[in-house]
Structures are given as C-alpha cells and as structure tokens.
Design brief:
Layout lengths: L2 H13 L3 H15 L9 E3 L13 H9 L3 E8 L4 E6 L6 E3 L5 E3 L4 E2 L6 E4 L3 E2 L5 E2 L5 H8 L5 E5 L20 E3 L4 E3 L1
Helix pairs in contact: 2-3
Length: 187
C-alpha cells in the first residue's frame, strides 16, 4: 500500500481509539520497551505526545527513562526550515504547546544529534522491513540523517506492521525496532 493510503487508514484507526484504550496501550508499550537491548545507553530522544492526534502517550516511557536515570532529550520544531532543535529535559524545562499542539521546550541546554544513542520515533504506520510513515513533513527523516549511523531507531505504534509500504524513497530511514502493546518487532 502507498503512503497516502496508509496515512488515511491509520489516522482513521487512531481516531476510533478511546482515551482509555490509548492510555492502556501506552502503558503496555512502555512495559514492552523494557525488553529491548538498549538500556546501557545514556542519551535517549523522546517525542512528546500530540494529544489531539491520539498519539501514544509517551509519559509512561518518559517515567521509565527517568527511573533508569537516563538523559532525556526532546525537540522543538521549526516549521519554516523543517528542522528540529533538541534540548535536554530537566526539572527546570518549561514546555509550551506550539500551534500544532506539540509540547515543546521554551529553551534549555541544546543537544546535538551526534550525541543521541536511541531515538524513539513517532509514526502513523510501518511495514515488516521497518520502513515507517510519519505525517509527511519529513522532520524525522532530516533529523535521523544527522544522527550517527549506529543510533538505534525505535518506533512506537498501537498497531501491527503492514506487509509493505510501496513508495519508500532513498531518504527514508528504517527503524531498528517497533514496539506495540503486545510485541516488539525487530528489523
């Protein structure tokens, strides 16, 4: 299936999820994450949930990272340049919703992409080869292009993978893992 069709399908599937289902699935995903062989790393990038898009609630995963005393890095989007700037999440970090409903740091200690060891990647859909589809703006593909090749890319999804995304292009970055409420997929 092509990206446009999959975006439409998975936006509809997400819209059908209740708040209770999102909460339960999000907790299950955080628990499944504990199975991954990634916990010896130090610097973890985590996206913050866009609640109005019924995304996975990453608060549970954030608590896992904080409980393991990891450095948590979050981003701020520049919609003019299509780039993300990354900041260390601390007790003093102040967040503000941007015009798209994305919680973002107002300021803080900036972190370079080369320092990131694990990136939790938002997605709408993915396939059995680890190819992913986001919202189509390319923020994460541009971001992942700046990370070290050995940076571990972990998708988070409420759903199982599609068989194949037919219109993958050279600039797409495949995942190493994808965590669902019931299973971790390895690519």
């Amino acid at each position: 299936m092509d990206k446009a069709s999959l975006r439409k399908k998975y936006k509809t599937l997400r819209d059908q999820l209740s708040e209770e289902a999102i909460d339960n699935f999000s907790l299950d995903i955080a628990n499944q994450a504990l199975q991954l062989p990634i916990w010896e790393k130090t610097n973890y990038h985590l996206f913050l949930t866009i609640a109005n898009k019924k995304e996975i609630d990453t608060e549970y995963l954030l608590q896992v990272l904080a409980g393991k005393d990891k450095n948590i890095i979050i981003s701020k989007s520049d919609f003019e340049s299509g780039e993300l700037t990354h900041y260390l999440l601390t007790d003093n970090t102040r967040l503000k919703l941007n015009n798209y409903g994305i919680p973002e740091p107002i300021d803080g200690i900036q972190i370079q992409e080369s320092q990131l060891e694990v990136v939790f990647v938002p997605l709408l859909a993915y396939d059995r080869k680890g190819n992913r589809i986001g919202y189509g703006k390319g923020f994460y593909d541009r971001f992942l292009a700046k990370c070290k090749p050995e940076t571990i890319k972990v998708g988070l999804s409420f759903f199982c993978p599609e068989t194949e995304i037919t219109d993958i292009y050279e600039g797409d970055f495949p995942l190493d893992y994808c965590i669902t409420p019931s299973k971790v997929y390895t690519f």
